[in-house]
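Reviewer comment 2.1 asked that we show a complete input and output for one of the modelled complexes. We chose the flavin-adenine dinucleotide case, as it is the one discussed in the main text.
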Amino acid sequence: MANVLILGAGYAGLRAAKLLAKHASQLTITIVNDHPYHYESTQLHEVAVGNKEPADITFSLRASLPDNVNLVVDTVTKIDRDQQRVELAHHDPLPYDYLINSLGFESETFGIPGAEENALPLIDIDTAVAARKHLEETLAHFSQSQDPDDLRIIVCGAGFTSIEYLGELVHRLPKLIDQYHLPADQIKIDCIEAMPKVLPMFSQDLADYAVHYLESHGVTFHTSTPITQIDPGVVHSKDTSYTAHTIIWTTGVQGSHVIADSGYAQKRNRVMVQDDLTVKDHPNEYIIGDVSAVPDPASGRLYPTTAQIAIAQADTAAHNIRAQVSGRTPSKFTFHSLGTVCSLGPTSGVAEINMLGHWKFKGVIVGPLKKLVNDRSVLELANVRTMLESN
Ligand SMILES: Cc1cc2nc3c(=O)[nH]c(=O)nc-3n(C[C@H](O)[C@H](O)[C@H](O)COP(=O)(O)OP(=O)(O)OC[C@H]3O[C@@H](n4cnc5c(N)ncnc54)[C@H](O)[C@@H]3O)c2cc1C
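Response of the prediction step:
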């Protein structure tokens, strides 16, 4: 029996475990994750503003994994590639014949001083809950302090996660204004972005739609404004400073620090994999999801890190391990993007879809489209019951 060890039960790891379990007669499968639950990281921004509870976007790993997959709840600290074993914080090291490394993403501060200490990232359930608590407590504090900065919110970055966060935030604000008796006209939301364009992955007309939608709900955009430093309550950019007591950090992600700690050749903790998703000279080591770097043959640039590509990579890695165990030739990874859906709160958004042609959508039609994408993800990773319970 070949021993397959999967690290991380996000989109990539969980999908790979479920696929391999269907053909497990020649395999022993173990998955390690630092929590006993899977969380839908594509919906963390909804928890971070309080439009959803953690229970709405998490489900039990044990309940969704097939019985023939062993689950170890622990933190991976290092991969000992020479000994082919993985070191854990609390258990004995786990050996492997085949490794699927899908440890996912962490916040990227780009070395900007103070970003880690003074801004709130959105990377897992704990950070999303912390961001919500901070937002609510800071707004509530205004009635005592009368400090205008308690009513100011800065979102750092204007990429996908920042825009989705802002969309949820402007949707939730009227309820928070009522709850804490806030002066609505004094609330100020600034979005600060180094690049000239908001939502760079979308065509200009859709990016403009998102900007106008958010501006009409009180957001001020500052593009071409690189953040140089963050002090407590202050974001600096060259000669200008912006003050706020809530600063959200959604500028980008890097891969898990375990990648660098384990001695891989990497950039921002992402490893350039071969076209079958293995690591060069290590045909039994697969790296997939946000810890991998895969060039798009069409553009030559790296694919963006998305749940969609993580799931597609899991399909290839699971297929290739089964092929290797059966003495067949592994396949090359190919990817056809189905498109991108960016929500602007629960009832609006922008989308570019690549199915039966290329389609652009904006406005209320994108709300149900996003829900469809989220439901499909839960259905693929958990089961019908979990999908119905999360609605
Ligand atoms: C707010 C937000 C919205 C997004 N929206 C979209 C979207 O609409 N569409 C899209 O395609 N993508 C979206 N993304 C990107 C998407 O979430 C990621 O690309 C995706 O989660 C990557 O999947 P993964 O399986 O590689 O890693 P992850 O989902 O990060 O999973 C990694 C898993 O490993 C576990 N883990 C991490 N470190 C350790 C350790 N040391 N030991 C043990 N376990 C560990 C984690 O707890 C987690 O369960 C969004 C991201 C964010 C933050």
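Residues 115-249 form a domain with the FAD/NAD(P)-binding domain fold (CATH 3.50.50.60). We note this here for comparison with the apo prediction described in Section 3.2.
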